[in-house]
């Protein structure tokens, strides 16, 4: 299927809009758009795709996982704090740090 690339000429067979997207998620948006264009002739598959994406975005547990992840700067500060500390179990502190960065439950077998 040929699709509109913008400008004059080919008009998309579906309603379109323009939006500014953060660079960090642009590739994801491009993939979703490409999937939509490829499935345009199959409305039942588009419905499935849209409902799958919607359910992922509405899952509150996944949103909480994203909010727990530390930025690079925060992770470096936490690691420096652990290395400077003279008390406590460093293994447990590193497990806590890695869990904060990557989410889930990380156990170090050292």
Can you lay out the helices and strands and say which pair or pack?
Blueprint: H1 23-39, H2 43-58, H3 60-68, H4 72-84, H5 90-102
Describe the structure.
This protein has 110 residues and is an all-alpha fold. It folds into two domains: 1-58, no CATH class; 67-102, no CATH class. The protein is 62% helix and 0% strand. The protein is built from five helices and no strands. The chain has helices at 23-39, 43-58, 60-68, 72-84, 90-102. It is elongated, with a radius of gyration of 22 Å. It starts with 22 loop residues before the first helix and ends in an 8-residue tail after the last helix. The model has no long low-confidence stretch (mean pLDDT 77).
How would you briefly describe this protein structure?
The protein has about 110 residues and is mainly α. It has five helices and no strands.
Structural class call reads mainly alpha
Runs with pLDDT <50, length 5+?
none
**Count of separate DSSP helical elements:** 5
How far is it from the N-terminal to the C-terminal residue, by CA? 55 Å
Number of strands: 0
Taken from the alpha-carbon principal axes, the silhouette is: elongated
Percent of residues in beta strands? Answer: under 5%
Range of helix content:
55-70%
- Rg, rounded, reads 22 Å
- What oligomerization state is this entry in? single chain
Reading the helices and strands in chain order gives: HHHHH
Instruction: Tell me about the largest β-sheet.
Output: none
Mean pLDDT across all residues, rounded?
77
Number of domains: 2
């Amino acid at each position: 299927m040929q699709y509109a690339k913008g400008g004059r000429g080919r008009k998309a067979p579906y309603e379109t809009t323009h939006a500014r997207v953060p660079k960090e998620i642009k590739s994801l948006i491009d993939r979703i758009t490409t999937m939509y264009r490829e499935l345009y002739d199959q409305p039942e598959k588009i419905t499935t795709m849209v409902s799958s994406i919607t359910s992922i975005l509405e899952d509150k547990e996944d949103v909480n996982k994203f909010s727990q992840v530390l930025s690079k700067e925060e992770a470096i500060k936490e690691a420096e704090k652990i290395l400077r500390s003279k008390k406590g179990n460093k293994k447990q502190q590193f497990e806590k740090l890695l869990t904060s960065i990557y989410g889930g439950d990380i156990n170090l077998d050292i």
